[in-house]
Amino acid sequence: MKLFRNPKANKSVALLLGLTLLLAACSNSNNNNNESASNTPSNETPAADFSYPMTGGTELTFMNEQLGGTPESLPIDDEYAKRTGIKIKQLGGTPMADQKFSLMLASGELPDIFLNTWLQYPGGPDKAVEQGYILKLNDLIDQYAPNLKKALQEHPEIDKMIKTDDGTYYAFPFIRSEAGRVYGGPIIRKDWLDELKLGIPETIDEWHTVLTAFKEKKNASAPVTFRTMFLGERTGGFAGAFGVMGNFYINDGKVVYGYLEPGYKDYLKTMSQWYKEGLIDKDFASIDAATVDKKMTSKVSGATIGWQFYIEKYNSAAQETDPNANFVAAPYPAAVKGELPEFGQLDNAYAGTSSAAISANTKNVEAAMRWLDYAYTEEGSMLNTFGFEGTTYNLENGKPVYTDLVVNNPEGLGSDQVMMKYAHGTNFPMIQQDNNLPAKFPQTAESIGIWKKTNHESHLLPPVTPTAEEADEMSSIMNDINALVKETELKIILGTESVDNYDKYVQQMKDMGIERALEIQQAAYERYMKR
């Protein structure tokens, strides 16, 4: 995808019903705000006469689901305020599925801008607009967001992703670059492999051999460690070798649910056997990211599944005490050597995350639109990607070249840590550019090419939008099914449930309505393909 030329917990039914009731209770009173806010006050600036920075000293509140507590103010925040003329008061946020989010909506005390995953809103983003919580942006984009509008005209594949079936634009999107769609996979200690005279594993059988050697010859008490999120839902994990993945995906134009497929039972049987043999961390069901990090860098574990920056982090930490430590990416395992696994990790360019919707209650519609639209200007794109000219980069022959603050940071910070202060590389409403950040370890840069080698693209379900009625029905079906599959998965791997009983859980999913959920997803997929 060619972008600007200038150089990313299951709830109970009771919680879902509580959320629905809270939304409904506020729907009527908020709906009037939605209608009035989308009308343009006569004192706002005509699009043709506007230029940054905006005058008037407007301050907006901005809630980011990924930030808890009181977010730290960074240099990029001050620079954004200077360039746009709009000050932002950042608020700690909460994910869409958290009850705190529903309580905030019910209170009526809403931020001007919400950064969240609006595809997960109960009833879908159309329902959020209908209920009067966020604005429909179609006319407002025409009035106040010429840069987003231009980007969508130039990239119809993006335009198709970020609206609902009836054409409603509901948020400013975070769009990943083509290179940014893959960012995670298996990670392994190559220095251990070299010592044991073993190659990087490529198949499930080779992984079994390697992990057994880590246990028996390196005395690793947890040869492979990971969190449950990496089992087979966020990534294909080891499940891809069995031709399956958790969640919904596409097979030859049909939506399927991986947990129903025979290959998933085979995958669970293998993972259960590995756990019984002591190859999988006995604590994996309950550990957090920090514990995984500690195990990986203290010789307790020799492999994991994680994100690209973990490689940089692990090598930096481990080499302080063991200069020979060498963490590298390993390919997603295949069933047969030389074949590609069906699944790995791959996001849609628009996955729905970090989407900025504007509150229907805001008194500053134009300012909110202008602040968000700045990210889609060429100047804003450069700032978000490369930071501050003269500080994090200089232009040489028209191309940005990183300074020593980034490349050889005097405080020993990694390039990604520096750029988090001076730019928005990810998880911000914008169209991401490839920034080619320098890595301290070449293993980091090499990882993406290794993890890309799967057939995942052919199975990727696009960001479909079921109708409000369909979305409500999907939620009522999937809430309990999601809880069931996670519980069953853990029981089988931990050995408290026989894998032979998996068929009864497949039937239970059918009794709970999974086939109806598949019908809804299929209909939404077919509508999406006709956009």
UniProtKB/TrEMBL annotation:
Biased composition (Low complexity): 31-43
Keyword Signal tagged: yes
Keyword tags: Signal
Pfam families: SBP_bac_1 (PF01547)
Disordered: annotated segments: 31-50
Organism: Paenibacillus monticola
InterPro entries, per the entry: Bact_solute-bd_prot1, SBP
SUPFAM superfamilies xref list: Periplasmic binding protein-like II (SSF53850)
Protein name stated in the entry: Extracellular solute-binding protein
Signal peptide interval: 1-24
PROSITE patterns: PROKAR_LIPOPROTEIN
Taxonomic lineage of the native organism: Bacteria, Bacillati, Bacillota, Bacilli, Bacillales
